[in-house]
Design a protein that fits this description.
Layout (H helix, E strand, L loop, with lengths): L2 E10 L4 E10 L2 E10 L3 H16 L4 E5 L2 H7 L11 H20 L3 E5 L9 H35 L1
Parallel strand pairs: 1-4, 4-5
Antiparallel strand pairs: 1-2, 2-3
Helix pairs in contact: 1-2, 1-3
Length: about 160
Amino acid sequence: MTFRIFTDASFLDREKIAGIGIVVCKNESRKCISYFSKARNVNEAELIAIYTAAILAGSKPCEIITDSQTALSYIKGEINIDKPRTHEQYISFKQQMFWAYKIRNLSQNIKFTKIKSHTGYYQIDSINNQIADQLAKEGVTKYLNQQKILYDKNRRGRD
């Protein structure tokens, strides 16, 4: 593998916003990416993070490492929902299947790996996973800061 990409997501249920954290490791260098995106649930958020990593990989061989077994199961086509209990569950399932389909179409040269989350070990993979986790939380913070700035700006306009 030429390089490795660690992904993680953090989710605000009330706002339906996901923070996305990505750590791209190539040789001895590390590039960190943090942003936010709309998502229906944490599983969709994890798939969005993996999709972003697959886009970053392009056609180069790489390994994408995630702590989400559910996301990997969607990508492998192992998740099947026979009878969703609610319309929202059905829509979420279809959206997650859509993200998994998009990832599969980009992943000819990608190996997907599950990493155990929040182990606290001082091994390089655990450290990179923890960085991706912090970047995902930073993505949520970016969203909240943006909302505060917009709120403050609107409030000043009324005074």
